[in-house]
Write a structure and sequence with these properties.
- The protein is an all-beta fold.
- The protein has no helices and 4 strands.
- The radius of gyration is 15 Å and the shape is elongated.
- The two termini are about 25 Å apart.
Length: about 55
């Protein structure tokens, strides 16, 4: 699926589904855009590093 970011950049990402459970509200499903390997590399600018979690 293609997404247009706020700065006008177009990115393609795979889409999946996330299950969200909120106490008192039950479970709901929501679409989720999946990240790419490049999203998890440490930036040279010293920003925060994202980590992948295995399910």
């Amino acid at each position: 699926m293609e997404f247009v970011l706020a700065n006008g950049t177009v990115v393609k990402r795979a889409v999946s589904e996330a299950l969200i459970e909120l106490p008192g509200y039950g479970e709901r499903r929501s679409p989720a855009a999946l990240g790419e390997d490049e999203n998890f590399r440490r930036s040279d600018s010293g920003g925060l590093r994202a980590r992948r979690r295995s399910l």
